[in-house]
Write a structure and sequence with these properties.
The chain is built from 10 helices and 9 strands. The chain is an alpha/beta fold. The protein has a 9-stranded mixed beta sheet with strand order 1-9-8-7-6-4-5-3-2, sandwiched between helices.
Length: about 325
Amino acid sequence: MTRWLIDDRPATRWTRAYVRGMWLARDKRAFEGAAHTLRTAWARQQGGDAPPTRWTRARRRATRREVAGMAVWSVAPRRTAPAVRVVYVHGGGYVHPLTSDYWRLVRALSSAPAEVLVPAYPLAPGARVDEVLPRLLEVVRSTTEQQPDLPLVLMGDSAGGALVLVLARLLQDRHGLRADAVVPLSPWLDARLDEERVTELEATDPMLAETGLRAAGRWWAGVRDTGDPLVSPVHASLAELPPVELWIGEHDILRPAVDTLAERADRDGCDLTVHEVPAMFHVWMTRAIPEARRTRQALVALLRRVSGAGGRGAGH
């Protein structure tokens, strides 16, 4: 069953100015054309993943360890024991590393109180889905075994929003483990971008462009078709998945695939809640704008509901 919750408040004056700045800075040029997308990806990957910011380290307990050959950051409250665990898979079209904006969101999530695990996974075109998925599964499985009584939430944005849906499916099918909730934020559900409204929406999207995004999807898919459910979870079964809480804005070329996912959720009997904020753009919840702060507060409230629901994490 799908529930659709719409926050139709107009963008604040601050945010309208912020978006104008994104257009002036040509943020979406990072995904304009395959060749330019590849050059931009290599340049950003050479710069590496942004570690937790100084403010995050000052306010939270931030540690780093290696799991399955990847760096995995853990961010948690300094004095309060976590009541829920979040595995957060970052976005970036499968080609861009962690940026400092993510730590603003992670810091907020940890206040639930939560332990938030952020894997710095290998990126395309050097890495492919078949190489990376087993590593991400190992992050979830190994941390769950250490503290099986903590409720588990799989959360991610954009490409990471697709990955957490895939991970939830594989955890159940391959390991018999079930998360307590899956939270895709502005998810890239269809790597093909097949929906009719994608081209129409690109004119209003200050961040994403079709051409480069499609190329990134092909690089990530490797030998697989980009429509494969491991790459495009809009085609995957949602049967028996945990509740899915999805956030999406209207100024986002990834918006049309959410309708297709909702149809599949109804068909498969998945408990899906779509939180639509029409005035917003792609992955707004990481930014320093009022609407992002509201969304972060809603995500913290969700984590608190999960932690108080009496679940026993992925083992139950």
